[in-house]
Design a protein that fits this description.
Helix content is 54%, strand content 12%. Helix 1 links the parallel strand 1 and strand 2.
Length: 313
Amino acid sequence: MSELNKNDITLIDKKMLNVAVIGIGLIGGSIALDLKKFPKVKKIIGVDKSQENLYKAKQLGIIDDSLPLKQAINEADLVVLATPVDTSIRLLPEILEIVDNQIVFDVGSTKENIIKCAENYPKRGRFVATHPMAGTEFSGPEAALHHLFKNKPVIICDAKSSDKDALQLIREVYEFLGMNIVEMDPKPHDLHAAYVSHISHISSFALSLTVLEKEKVEKNITDMASGGFDSTVRLAKSSPEMWTPIFIQNSGNVVDVINSYIAVLQKFKNVILANDSEKIMEMIQQSNEIKRVLDKFQENKELSKWNLSKNNE
């Protein structure tokens, strides 16, 4: 981590910041919407390969201006890298070559590879690797939502490699968004993300493909579909441009999770074929334990929400 001159005026001391958001989709757009209310933010600048996305973002009031990448970074104090993870890995070295004192943070679902791609750059300390655990199945600037991140966890990885003022500002940003900050090393982050997040999407994609393959008449699906089906396949509406590179970047962990999942499915198959009602009930009861885990998570969310409101009084 690079040391700052004590006589320097760091970004955290500035009253107003220009923010460049690279990638105006669900996550980047939602961050932009909320940061418009952040007292330190003066202007939101959008960067996107799609001129249509930039036009929509302006029309929706998500961004104030749009500029090419290099010009946007030069005008910004804070840079949000909110592109698909493969694009972020390609762009980050270019961004680190441009930045002087600007602070950069990414929001990608995989962390190990993007941290590796930044480690040998002189301006590595200006980068903070993060993963806000929030989202929906929708994409594009029109999917952006106010308060998407409130009471959700955000993971900060490899914090020791980021400059103190960079880390301080990013923590302040996420606290303003209402997120619960957790620090984690990148390798365990990617493993846990595969189990908690990535497998949920694969399961949804696989179920959707199975139903579409077997139910050739759409009316049979719509006539029978109910809340259980809707909630299980909801994630199958997610963007392939976003999720394909996530699976590729985290392929080792994802494949391990898929193998574990297949083993459990095979066990279900075997006990059902054997008409073993006791084993079926036992497996379902074991799976019910997730309720206790999620209830505890919800209690912690409510406690964090209460603490946040008390702190803001």
